[in-house]
Fold this protein.
Amino acid sequence: MAPPRTPTLVASPSLWDPVVRLTHWGIAASIVLNALLDEGGSLFHVWVGWTVMALLLMRLVWGAIGPAEARFSAFPPNPLAALRHLRELATGKVRPHPSHNPAGAMMAYALWATLAVVTVTGLIMTGGATPMQVASDKAAVASGDWSALIKDSEGESDEDRSFGKAAEEVHEVAANLLLVLAALHLAGVFLESRALRRNLVAAMLTGHRDK
Amino acid sequence: MTASPDIRLAGRRQTVALSVFLLIQSLGTVFFVGDVIGDLRADPFSAHFIFEAVVTAALVLGILFGAFALRRTIELLRAQDQALAVARGALSDVIETQFTAWALTPAERDVGLLALKGLDVAEIAELRGAAQGTVRAQLTRIYSKAGVSGRAQFAAFFVEDLLGAGVPEVNPTG
């Protein structure tokens, strides 16, 4: 018979629920698509942008009403704890955490905030048009009806135009920041996996802690 | 035991399917909300806008309730996993306590546990590196200390407790 286990130390074998996993990989794929693969401003780019907005919103809703590990209360933003965790990571003595570790939590918030900035500035650049509207406008322009373009710029003051220009700048800077953060996130996951001797990527793929 | 992993696997598949559904729903709703905001800027008092706004609000509410139900399902599955672990721990606690009450020796405790797990005399003897005669003698002593007639009654001693606790309304004479 197995030695008696202490119930307080027995963590649930399932760590990440399907919503966390699907939104995580969906957002990751969207960032790769929109930052590296497709053409900025294309219809596909706008589609992916709207998709990632839905994924981000769903994850934030899930952070409020999801199960314990997915909720914000399980990983409150705490920069001091994050620094302490990074110091632990440097010495290779990390403690396992039930949800995100403190440094990972700060990274999650930073990624979400940056993604929100990218999404909002993207919406400003397209005038909040849904992909369907963008598609019909593009089709109209392609068929020789340039009124869609005129509609966009009519009644637009210099102030509006400089605001749009600023949104574009912020969109690009934030998108690059997002890539930097994603790279740091990958490095963090690699180091944490090695220190804990646990495959954190597999946990995010399958949802199970490996034993 | 073989059935329970299947049930839990089915439960997990169900939560994955519900999550996918929830995400597709939220995807659709975000497009709807974008469209409604566009209509709002165009003409906030048209019947078209009001109708779409109501539909979209219903969609948003549906997603929130769906998410809440999904969270309940996920928590229920986890609670079942944990209850199973606790039940296993509790049963082993009960066995330990009862063995102590019967004043079994350490060797008898081992043999008793193996017998409860369904191993026969030959297997227990091989596991413990003892003669079959020794194991048979130890089992006989365990049964007499426990006041049971044999292996079947010995195993039933613990199962009976579990069944009694699991049935709310037991016949008082039973």
Remarks:
- Chain B has two domains: 1-89, 102-174.
- Residues 1-89 of chain B form one domain.
- The interface with chain A takes residues 12, 15-16, 18-20, 22-23, 26-27, 29-31, 34-35, 37-38, 63-64, 67-68, 70-71, 74-75, 77-78, 81-82, 85-86, 89, 92-93, 113, 117 of chain B (CB under 8 Å).
